[in-house]
């Protein structure tokens, strides 16, 4: 069965993290629900990493096995998914490729500011005390 990598980005404010959890809304559960709506079959997604509740991602990956994807897979999945989750690309990969174990690197970015900014209030930490760098 063919294996695919799925690249996505999301704003995690409304989610309890990346990985599926019982009784919690997650990025994985949203993508799996959309997949089942489009293909009328469930799929098991394997994530490259986990993020905590409320964390955003510019780039994260799943892998999954499936026989044949809808010809307009990305377009239709993005139409089904909520506005805060977007699928960017889908890649056919070799059958033993693994989203978690084959990653070449991971980067996490934390942004802290010392002034309020209404345009980034849900994406940055505001620290009003003096920062001491060592």
Number of strands: 6
Averaged pLDDT = 88
Assign an overall shape: elongated
Helix percent band: 10-25%
> End-to-end span in angstroms?
52 Å
Q: Radius of gyration from the CA trace?
A: 17 Å
Give the biggest sheet.
Answer: 4 strands, antiparallel
Question: How are strands sequenced across the largest beta sheet?
Answer: 2-3-1-4
Annotate the secondary structure layout.
Layout: E1 3-10, H1 27-39, E2 46-47, E3 57-65, H2 73-80, E4 85-93, E5 112-113, E6 125-126
Helix pairs in contact: 1-2
Description of the structure:
This protein is an alpha+beta fold and 134 residues long. It has helices spanning 27-39, 73-80; strands at residues 3-10, 46-47, 57-65, 85-93, 112-113, 125-126. The strands form 2 sheets. Strands 2-3-1-4 form a 4-stranded antiparallel beta sheet. Strands 5-6 form a two-stranded parallel sheet. Helix 1 packs across helix 2 (73-80).
Outline of the structure:
With 134 residues, this protein is an alpha+beta fold. The chain contains 2 helices and 6 strands.
What characteristics describe this protein?
134 residues, alpha+beta, 2 helices
């Amino acid at each position: 069965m063919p294996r695919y990598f799925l690249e996505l980005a999301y704003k995690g404010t409304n989610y309890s993290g990346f990985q599926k959890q019982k009784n919690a809304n997650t990025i994985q559960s949203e993508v799996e629900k959309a997949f089942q709506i489009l293909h009328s079959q469930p799929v098991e997604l394997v994530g490259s990493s986990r993020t905590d509740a409320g964390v955003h991602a510019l780039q994260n990956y799943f892998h999954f096995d499936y026989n044949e994807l809808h010809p307009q897979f990305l377009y239709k999945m993005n139409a089904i998914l909520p506005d805060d989750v977007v699928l960017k690309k889908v890649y056919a990969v070799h059958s033993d490729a693994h989203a978690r174990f084959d990653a070449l690197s991971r980067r996490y970015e934390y942004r802290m500011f010392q002034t309020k900014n209404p345009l980034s209030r849900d994406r940055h930490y505001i620290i009003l005390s003096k920062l001491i760098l060592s």
